[in-house]
Design a protein that fits this description.
Length: 781
């Protein structure tokens, strides 16, 4: 029987070959998508692991970073180091800071070896000596293309080599390891003597790590959950649809075999072999597509950054599950499909009408809504893992519930169609839908899930965009370069004050800044311990205050203005703590005489520019050289606009992820619909040919085809979109603490366009309808 099944699969005539090719191609596309999703999940974890060493030397509140020994100096004070797991006798002095260029973050590590056994950062052959640095390929290219006074002058010395892949999260990562002397490093605030590099990725260190990049546990769980729900389920549905192509035609042939004496077991074995052959060929095609497209797919910024092609890899269990599971699932599906084919004692073929669908199918859908509703009423779990679990389970139940309830909703739509039908085409379509609503819904199930995913993403992104700016806005304020030095300290009264930590800029530094084309003015914000808080209508809360000269403030309209007659004003200690447009805001006067103002320590240095990249980067280079690594606070000089981008970076990354998921799910839905339409053509040949022989017009048959797809699509899609908005509203209330905002007109236009394109794809089969329903088809059947 196995040999006969193989022969029928590959030598059963032209129809069998065409069927084999179509099924194999469809399964191949589905397997290629499935492998890509699995590899992307693996790549996210690998990429995140490479951020681990960037957290070396950052003491944690409850889980000390591995390898920190001796004394860790922070802001001039000694602090006890964490536990060590290394045995190196020669520690490495290490200080991590961040830099910026054109809105991109540069990770900088200043390092000084104390002996030949000092640990070496990953990706480089040895520790750099004083005057040397190792650099990532992307940053090396940037150094060559940018003028020296905008970037290269920040890193004295010469390039000793490139950092390899082991030390870089992404091909686009900007990383530099600068060599310093141990004598200098031992006196830099924030430097740590380490004997090994941290190996705990950001996803495994909880909330206690000073994460300099990568995804937190909640972030990576969220991304992997979104991938699993929004991509894997539609892909699996597509593969399942592909393996059922021409199911009706195979049932008729197997029924004929039963008539000539084949046993049910023999027919089942032949069906399983025939389906498995097509699935095996499709799996091979899928693996080929995956390896062929892996390099261009690595360029998709799934997490906001590109992957290395090697990171899009598959483990042995992944390969075995797909290579064995897909053909096995195809064989099982073929066996289950035969439950509708029986032979009576007289040897007459009869088709068994499926059992009537029951309303219990909507229970998983309601359970998913109830899960999210419970969180709204009783609050979300305290732990990030618990939050991810409760929301993922709710959305998973809703998506699975849509698939389970889809046939029942299709049957309900067919009943409405019957009541309103006034033409034969509508009655025929309603009868076919009622006879097998599962098959009718299966064709549009992928598109229904894609519409649900699109609705949730569009609604949540629209809600996210209603939040106020993270920092001050306005064109003038966004172009101000801020070098922040003050630290916030709680005094005995419980109030917070800004404590300055840097000396005033030298006349030479001020002169160089003013000579930059595009620099308009400079404001020196002074930290005064005598000032506690300032109440702002912009932020709606009290924040630590500093003091500024009104003469300097008047030269920068984007920072607000002083009261009439005031010599100094109280302003926020950091512009990054203020939301709203500052241009027309009047700050309260400060009772600080001019002679005392000049003696106060520098809290921040604000350089107003015209917004051009050369002006911003030249000023940033001068400031970093004037206040080098280890003096002041860790953040590099950034414009207010760049602070805004950094503060909203996670939201932007999630929006990018949403775009990838939406496009992918829509593409998969289109493939599912196309495969279903192709299979439907073969299944409709005989009944439609007989209808034409009895006098049915071609136009009526076209209406039947459209109604058979439009009814389940519109009925279930309407429910999916409504539930998508309801689930989004509950998520926004509990997780984002915002009221749901309606998406823009683009969402409604794209949704309508997607439905119209789906119906257009169905209408594209009309030219073939005349050819496959002629009298010769009925005779050959």
């Amino acid at each position: 029987m196995i040999r006969l099944g193989l022969r029928l699969a590959v030598s059963g005539g032209r129809e069998a070959v065409v069927r084999l090719v179509i099924v194999a191609a469809a399964v191949g596309i589905g397997v290629g998508l499935l492998l890509t999703v699995i590899a992307a999940v693996n790549a996210v974890g690998v990429q995140n692991d490479r951020y681990a060493w960037l957290d070396t030397g950052a003491p944690a509140a409850s889980a000390p970073v591995q390898g920190v020994v001796g004394v860790v100096r922070q802001h001039g004070r000694a602090a006890s180091g964490g536990a060590t797991t290394a045995t190196s006798r020669d520690p490495l002095w290490l200080l991590f800071t961040t830099d910026a260029f054109d809105g991109q973050t540069i990770y900088r590590a200043d390092a000084a070896a104390t002996g030949p056994a000092s640990p070496v950062p990953p990706g480089i052959p040895r520790d750099p000596g004083p005057g040397q640095y190792y650099i990532s390929p992307a940053l090396s290219s940037l150094l060559r293309s940018a003028p020296a006074d905008e970037l290269a002058d920040r890193y004295p010395g010469h390039q000793a080599g490139l950092i390899g892949q082991a030390g870089l999260p992404s091909p686009d990562s900007l990383v530099i390891v600068v060599g310093r002397s141990a004598a200098v490093m031992s006196h830099l605030p924030g430097a740590a003597a380490v004997t090994s590099f941290n190996t705990t990725p950001p996803s495994g260190c909880g909330n206690s790590c000073q994460i300099r990049g990568g995804l937190t546990p909640k972030g990576i769980d969220f991304i992997l959950s979104v991938v699993g729900l929004a991509l894997l389920l539609p892909v699996l549905i597509f593969i399942g649809t592909a393996t059922r192509l021409s199911a009706a035609r195979r049932e008729q042939r197997f029924a004929a075999m039963r008539l000539v004496g084949a046993t049910p077991g023999q027919v089942s074995l032949i069906a399983a072999v025939e389906s498995a052959v097509a699935a095996v060929v499709g799996v091979a095609i899928g693996f080929g597509l995956f390896f062929l497209l892996r390099i261009p797919l690595a360029a998709i910024p799934f997490t906001g950054q590109r992957f290395y092609p090697a990171e899009l890899s598959l483990s042995l269990p992944d390969i075995l599950v797909v290579a064995v599971g897909v053909p096995l699932a195809a064989a099982v599906a073929a066996r289950l499909a035969l439950r509708r084919v029986n032979i009576s004692p007289l040897g007459v073929t009869r088709r068994v009408t499926p059992a009537r669908l029951r309303a219990w199918r909507v229970l998983p859908l309601l359970a998913g809504l109830a899960d999210l509703g419970f969180v709204v009423v009783h609050g979300k779990p305290a732990s990030p893992a618990g939050q991810v679990l409760v929301f993922v389970s709710g959305f998973a139940l809703i998506m699975i519930g849509l698939v389970i309830a889809g046939p029942w909703l299709t049957m309900a739509g067919a009943r409405v169609l019957v009541r309103r039908a006034s033409r034969p085409g509508a009655l025929i379509a309603a009868r076919r839908l009622a006879d097998d609503p599962r098959a009718a819904f299966r064709a549009v199930s992928g598109l229904v899930l894609a519409l649900f995913i699109f609705t949730v993403a569009a609604a949540l992104l629209a809600t996210q965009n209603t939040e106020p700016p993270f920092v001050a806005d306005g064109a003038a304020a966004n172009n101000i370069l801020v070098d922040q030095f003050s630290n916030i300290t709680v005094v005995s009264s419980g109030n917070q004050v800004a404590v300055g930590s840097a000396p005033p800029p030298s006349p030479a530094v001020l002169t160089r800044l003013r000579h930059i084309s595009g620099v308009q003015s400079i404001v020196e914000v002074r930290a005064d311990p005598g000032l506690t808080i300032i109440s702002t209508q912009l932020q709606g809360q009290d924040i630590p205050a500093a003091v500024v000269s009104c003469a300097q403030l008047a030269s920068v309209p984007g920072l607000g203005r002083c009261p009439a007659g005031a010599a100094a004003a109280k302003v926020p200690a950091s512009l990054t703590d203020v939301g709203g447009n500052l241009a027309d805001f009047t700050w309260p006067a400060a009772d600080v005489p001019a002679r005392r103002l000049d003696s106060l320590p520098l809290g921040s240095l604000d350089v107003a520019t015209n917004g051009s990249q050369p002006a911003i980067e030249q000023a940033r280079t001068i400031l970093e050289n004037a206040y080098p690594t280890g003096t002041g606070s860790p953040p590099p000089p950034r414009t207010v606009g760049e602070y805004n981008a950094v503060g909203n970076g996670a939201d932007n990354a999630y929006q990018q992820l949403a775009d990838v998921v939406i496009l992918t799910s829509l593409a998969v839905a289109g493939c599912t619909l196309a495969v279903s339409v192709a299979g439907g053509l073969a299944d409709r040949k005989r009944p439609f040919s007989l209808l034409r022989l009895t006098g049915a017009r071609l136009g009526m048959l076209r209406r039947v085809i459209v109604l058979e797809s439009a009814v389940p699509l519109l009925a279930v899609a309407t429910v999916a979109i409504g539930i998508g908005f309801a689930a989004s509203a509950m998520y926004a209330t509990t997780e984002m603490h915002l009221s749901l905002a309606a998406p823009g007109a683009a969402y409604f236009v794209l949704t309508l366009a997607g439905i119209v394109l789906a119906l257009g794809l169905i209408a594209a089969t009309f030219p073939l309808l005349r050819r496959i329903t002629g009298p010769e088809t009925a005779r050959s059947e």
